[in-house]
Amino acid sequence: MFYDAKALLGQPGINQTKKLPRLVGYKIGEILYWVATDRFDLTAEQVAQIYKRAGT
What we know:
56 residues; 3-stranded antiparallel sheet; alpha+beta; 32% strand; globular
């Protein structure tokens, strides 16, 4: 886990998110993964685990 924050996504006035989604970044091997989610009830580690399992 190397990143966990609320972040605006997109370009202002064009396609920017209205709500602040949570952005979680994690790494497997040399590959960086980014997940935008509205799940604030989970830890960043739990979010990463869910997406890691979904990819297998």
